[in-house]
Write a structure and sequence with these properties.
The structure is a homodimer. Chain A is α/β, with parallel strands linked by helices and about 300 residues long. Helices cover about 30% and strands about 30% of the residues of chain A. Chain A has nine helices and 16 strands. In chain A, strands 3, 4, 5, 6, 7, 15 and 16 form a seven-stranded mixed sheet that branches. Chain A has a six-stranded parallel sheet with strand order 10-9-8-11-12-14. In chain A, strand 9, helix 5 and strand 10 form a beta-alpha-beta unit. In chain A, helix 3 crosses helix 4 and helix 3 packs across helix 8. The radius of gyration of chain A is 19 Å and the shape is globular. Strand 14 of chain A pairs antiparallel with strand 14 of chain B.
């Protein structure tokens, strides 16, 4: 099979041996595989794939068709349309996935949208619901509302009855973010637009003191990205006075059973929203596998709304 | 009635008008009222009682007998043995308490123990169970294990099937803390004795970086005291990597309905442990009301294990 491959911090497309489905695993013919921030870090050698995942072939999400099933597979048969988050190796013609990590692809979704769905919608859903326990009627602030996770969080928060506000650094993208259902505010002085019950923090340490100021009593901050810095200052007396909590979360390092539970929640709580047309996968651009290097450049350049996806 | 009274940052005992029970309230003849760290701060003018509570008469917990009931009181009748956390005014011969904040006093408890129970056991229970959701089999670290909340947390953690470790600064108290059911370790280098699933932080900012190092994957830190400083440094990447969370909590500022729910949890989840002899209120010293100033000196001097309580 051909696959995107990391060679000395560059992306090339090379031939690799076909993977083989083991017990409980499914071999998937990949039709689309989204790019994510973590791929950019992995290309630079900063974020290795977890043990057991291909180290050279990037890609953490995919959508495709089941080709064959290993022993003991119960949920899927050849031909089924499936998608998943995986530890690595998604940006390839073939990938092996444990069946408990797969979900069906809603009928209304094309391959490109399905290939760009799992990572950002799972990350956003886990952060704002499983971690922060956002409720209808609450006020959600999404930092980085134009990013992949940001656009997913805005739509999920809105579909769940929250009032959603988003910061967007790039002024050209503000209108598109507003169309997703958020009140868009500038990054500077965001606390003036609060208070907020839940804050999704994708930027990192510099926002943290103002996040705490912007938080309502009983509020929750979920930190899932620290691109702008990891060392934050935290006023514990303010945290106590607001009876607030701060969650840190990441998906990739979790054990199989937790990832499988997360896939079930995606299936039960998020995919029906796609079927009902309440949420969608914004697509910035798609590239054929052979142009994987261009896709990475497109992702890294920023200034886009929505996903960059490889089509195969 | 006579009551401990704050006059220019000193404690005196003065005559005050008797309080009157309003609708839903109960007049209590106070038999015992514990001292707490917050009283020390209030005496120095740093922690005013919430609106609606007596400002000059300190005291946040009491045990006593119901004297009379205001309109609409349903749960208690004159003569009932009761105890409660209140916003202020507990260190007096008489106090008025909303009936939903009162709990019965277990038969086996004397007045001094009952008067020193509510604040520390409620604070510890709310922090480690309602906030951090400590489970049987987990590992709990209690900072300041010789303090009032510390001794309560150790016993509650142990009764719930957790493995409890405590830091104790004063070497003379370590054996007594160990007798409560904790493995006692020094404050310096405590992370070497981890990892811990839940850390109860009563000391403040200086412990926070090491707390995060000492935390297990999925661990929770609950901050309920910042005597040693409020400005903490927080490594967000470590928080993410451990999928950890940090809670800040305080009881005094909560609305009546939350305090009433907390009293119900004390009644249902903590008082049965007293009845079964699994936990107790360690008493350091008791003083008659007229010696309230001495009681405050005793509390402030430290070096004690357990509660300082006024008896009336």
């Amino acid at each position: 099979m051909r696959a995107a491959t990391i060679r000395e911090k560059e992306i090339v497309v090379e031939e690799h041996p076909d993977p083989v489905a083991g017990t409980g695993e499914v071999l998937v013919r990949v039709h689309a595989a989204g790019l994510n921030g973590a791929d950019m870090m992995q290309r630079r050698g900063l974020y290795p794939a977890p043990p057991g995942s291909p180290q050279e072939i990037p890609g953490m999400e995919l959508a495709g068709e089941v080709v064959s099933c290993g022993d003991g597979v119960e949920r899927f048969a050849p031909g089924a349309r499936v998608m998943a988050i995986i530890g690595g190796g998604a940006q390839a013609e073939l990938a092996v996935v444990h069946e408990r990590l797969l979900t069906p692809v809603p009928e209304s979704l094309g391959w490109a949208a399905a290939g760009g769905l799992p990572e950002v919608f799972t990350t956003a859903h886990d952060a704002i619901f499983s971690q922060a326990q956002l409720l209808a009627g609450e006020r959600l602030l999404v930092h980085g509302g134009a990013g992949g996770v940001g656009t997913a969080a805005i739509q999920l928060g809105r579909a769940a009855g929250a009032e959603v506000t988003a910061t967007v650094r790039n002024a050209e993208l503000r209108e598109q973010v507003a169309e997703l259902g958020a009140r868009v505010i500038p990054c500077e002085g965001f606390a003036e637009h609060g208070p907020f019950d839940v804050i999704l923090e994708l930027v990192g340490a510099p926002n943290m003191p103002e996040n705490l100021n912007a938080l309502a009593t009983g509020g929750r901050i979920v930190v899932i990205g620290v691109g702008a810095g990891a060392k934050a200052e935290l006023n514990l007396l303010a945290l106590m006075g607001k009876r607030a909590r701060i969650h840190g979360s990441t998906l990739r390092a979790r054990p199989l059973e937790e990832k499988a539970l997360i896939a079930r929640r995606l299936e039960r709580e998020v995919l029906p929203l796609f079927e009902r047309g309440l949420v969608r996968v914004p697509l910035a651009d798609t590239f054929p596998l052979e142009r994987a290097a261009d896709a990475y450049e497109r992702f890294a350049a920023g200034g886009k709304l929505g996903k960059v996806v490889l089509e195969l």
